[in-house]
Amino acid sequence: MKLEGKGDKQPGWSSLSISKWDQAKPTDGRSDKIRLWRRRALSKRGARLHMKMAAAGRSSSLAMLDETGVVVCWYGSPDGRDYASEEVEDRHLSLFYVSEEVARRQPYRDLRAAVIDGHLTRRAWRRRRDGSAFLGTFDIEPVVLRDGRVQGFSYVASAPG
Predict the structure, then answer these.
(1) Residue ranges of the domains in the chain?
(2) Model-wide pTM > 0.85
(3) What CATH architecture does domain 27-158 belong to?
(4) pLDDT value at position 104?
């Protein structure tokens, strides 16, 4: 699956593209260690954010994504209608989008807009575990390293009532 288009080749955006060739590249030990460190850091940050949301009484789903939009860790809402973590982890963000938005490459555009604006809040149709759609609100925030590079994203989805 390639999420990068012709007009999307801008400096600094290569980390937001994902393709099957990027995933199949042989890597050295150092890059594997860096990738694992980033995943652990995102998981820890997600756990802290989830605790804050639970303490505030927010019933939302939280996903921590790596820089390409792949889910690193998942905290579903407690109502039982949500995905289980093993169904979501190591899958792309597009899993939550309805097929029309995936065809328009909206997941990629949302990640890009979140990096540009620092935060993205949108109300749109999303897909549940059983395939049904719901109109909900979602927030995407980039997790940025000290040097300004994007380490990953937090994705919070809220369904009405």
Answers:
(1) 27-158
(2) no
(3) 2-Layer Sandwich (3.30)
(4) 95
